Amino acid sequence: MPTGSPSRGSLDTFIASAPTLQRAGMRALVALARRPRGATLLGRVPAAEQLAQVVTSLARYDDPELSRTLGWDGAAVVARGRALRRAEGRP
Amino acid sequence: MPADGRCDAPRDGHERPRDAIDHPAGTTVSIRDSAHISAEVCVIGAGAGGAVAAAELAEGGMDVVVLEEGHWHDPDTFTARPPEMLAQLYRDGSQTITLGNPPILLPLGRGLGGTTLINSGTCFRTPARVLEHWQREFGLDVSEESLRPCFERVEEALSVGEVTPELAGANAEVARRGAAHLGWSHGYLRRNARGCVGSGVCAFGCPTSAKQHTGITYIPRAERAGARIVTGARVERVLLENGAASSLARANGVPVARGVQARMASGARVQVRAPIVIVAAGTIHTPLLLARSDLGAQSGQLGQNLSLHPATAVFARMEEIVDMAHGVPQSFYVDEFAGEGIIFEGVAGPPAYAAMSLPLTGARHAEAMADYRRLAQFGVMVSDSSRGSVQALAGRPLIRYDLTDADLRRFRTGLARMRELFEAAGAREVYLPLPDGVSPERARLRDLKLMAFHPLGTARADARPAHGVIDGELQVHGVRGVYVADGSAVPSSLGVNPQMTIMALATRLAFGLLGREVEGSQINEEAACHS
Prior knowledge:
The complex is a heterodimer of chains A (about 90) and B (about 525). Chain A has 6 helices and no strands. By secondary structure, chain A is mainly α. Chain A has one domain (about 5-90). Chain B folds into 2 domains: about 1-75 and about 110-120 and about 125-155 and about 215-305 and about 455-525, 3-Layer(bba) Sandwich (FAD/NAD(P)-binding domain), CATH 3.50.50; about 165-190 and about 310-380 and about 405-450, 2-Layer Sandwich (Cholesterol Oxidase, domain 2). Helices cover about 25% and strands about 20% of the residues of chain B. In chain B, helix 1 (about 50-60) runs parallel beside helix 6 (about 220-225), helix 4 packs across helix 12 (about 500-515) and helix 5 (about 165-180) crosses helix 11. The longest helix of chain B has 20 residues, at about 405-425. Residues about 1-25 and about 525-530 of chain B have low confidence and may be disordered. Chains A and B meet through helix 1, helix 4 and helix 6 of A and helix 2, helix 9 and helix 10 of B.
């Protein structure tokens, strides 16, 4: 379990898995959203702002430490699952 | 079959594979160099339809080869982190999108298990009213009675049972409380799970292997019965004896299946010679494969009639701690409005998932997420009358789908009633997936934020060759030996999650090919204890 790994890495993996057009669009949106002037620009186009929100929040809240403060410990869920699988001989 | 019950190589007379991937039940064959394989049946795809057909046919004594484009996903690689898992387990990283008004996100699984690997595990039998519609409109010989043994058999194989209130968690309890207060019909869902502990990440790879997806149930059964499973194989064409279907038809001949031609990721070519080919590549890709193979186009219905069950989700901020990802995400339903084509089903997930679907921006989004533990979420799914299409564009599927006014009205109604449900449950705030200031009653198509999980109908069954791609026995019209066993065969929107319907039809197809009656819930003990 790559707990503590940078969320930006998993976001890059996510974006890289998209079809070409979406990949380019998402990279542009993320780049804009990370700059103050870009974020202001996005605010003028609600649909684009919403899409940027989707992508950037997926990365931000994937952070294990932030997740734990919100009551979700993904590492513990995975560890429990693996232990159960091994104990019960599941696939 | 080898004495130890494992099948790790093509049968005698065929080129041996160069490598093999360990798999819980046996060995999944992967091929690097060109190969020729012979079998009685070639199944394309290892999802809900293909895996079931392959296992039943192999256990029935047939020599089966399964070609799957994806791979076996080892549960040890499941991290419960949405971005990684979306990239790993879904086709195109879950970012398949329809073109139309509004655009709709259409996530599809890829690998052994197909979409059953990443779905919510909800199990409904085909509603009786839908089967009656199929008899009436499509001339199909299907009824509750005739499909009952198929459903029984699938349900036993997948350990289908109702979710308990304890496992359903607090998110379901919010919806239950609201529905009970309003007197709306509701209940706990039936799911294909065994030993579930409510990890809350069904859509991101079950870390306990509790969800009984076909990759850990039917595929191992198929392997134990001698089927060869080739992963990483993209099928290019279904091959026919004596050439292409159209030229044979012109000569008044009946085309007969000869096998398939596939290409491995390494570039190696694989030819499977088989007199029976079962296409189960999924609703989006099956019509493209048939079209590439010059099959099924005579009726003009190939790639048409796409239904999706478009859906959206509503959030609510409650007084109590909900911890939506603690429990089974899809464990509860409200079917009070099923007659109008609207059903409510639970949805939930970890903070990253909630954050990307929460319909707020900026400071309001951050503020609501800071109170994630009190957020509840529920989905609105529509049994659509809209129909779309799939065609190939530069080798990729181009999916067109426009929502009709009738379905827009269903969403308006569904969203208004979902708000009512949350308010009845005591919500402090309800977050509808609509732009600021737009009420459900005034929502326009472009205001909707939709996803869809149940594509169906693009190679639909109809007894009449002029109206459907396949007949009532799921055989492609005008061709001998080519069958379709996935969601594309389902001729109309179901109004409920389709995996059981697809599996039941695949079961019926397999027993039809074996020339046997379906044996209800009498799966052999060995298969049951391993499933």
